[in-house]
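Blinded run. Sample ID left blank on purpose so nobody reads anything into the name before looking at the predicted structure. Input follows.
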Amino acid sequence: DVVQAGEVIVCEGSTDVIGFFLAGLPRAVAGWGTALTEDQVRTLKNFARRLVLAYDADAAGQAAAERLYEWEKRYEVDIAVADLPPGSDPADLARSEPERLRAAVEQARPFLAFRIDRVLSGASLTTPEGRARAAEAALAMIREHPDEFVRDQYVMEVSTRTRIEADRLREALKKGRLTSAPERQSTPTRASRVVLSRSAEEEALLLAVHDREAMEARLHEVLFADELTAAAYRALMSTDSLHDALDVADPAAADLLQRLAVEEPNQDVDNVVGRLAREAGIRALRELEVAARDADDPAAFAPAMGWLKLTVEELRDPSSTVDASDRLVRWLVDRLEVEA
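Blinded prediction complete.
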């Protein structure tokens, strides 16, 4: 069906592949993670020219834009994003709303279009200030695209939706900003703001900033792969207050903590920790796969890889997320201590 349709759907895990099959879309493959890799693109382009990313919407929006645009040109493929409902995954949607899942794939949009629509749809476009902030956020995304004509098409779309003249947006695209940058505040204050999609690590850090006591027992440094969020987490957990954390953190980590301090968390704790643990488990699985390929006895890695795959699947089930994330954290900590 992949070759016949000229399209392949890239999803996170095996349960998603089964969900697509049951929904009448037997052309899905599991990428075992929410980040498309160049090896996957290189392989899949031999079977289809259109790649549809069917990840959780927040995760899809976090993909590295520059790499995707480069791969589209190098391998002559089109990369689109299925607009899944926030917080849902294909396996769940296949059971509850298979028609919605099919529509998300059929109406999948180019990666840049998906990102811009997410920003503009989540922004307050009823005030001049809100439209200006939304336009700046959209321009930052447009600026990453290497094709001048593509950039200009999206500039005109942003112009229509924000009611800002296209020529002003084109000038801002060249200069880097539509308005002057505000001075950094010395202490966090709550304000109305446009919040872009956050990564699982940022969501977890946001929850820790606002309710450290509740999150301290659920999180561990091994779950953070990004050095910036890891540094911010270390500063927060090594001090008694956010104020103290801002004092000891390096400038970039302090900026991140300060930004999160004025944003309101709106995600369920178990969902965020489960997503964070799932990403950590997938990273560990990929590391083991690489080690197994280079090992004299690849079979020795099979038990750990099998356990990780099972745990990652358990992290997708709300009824087992808490226990599975706790087990994974213990395993990751033990593994780190053994390697040390």
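Unblinding after everyone has recorded impressions. The chain has four domains: 2-107, 116-175, 200-261, 269-339.
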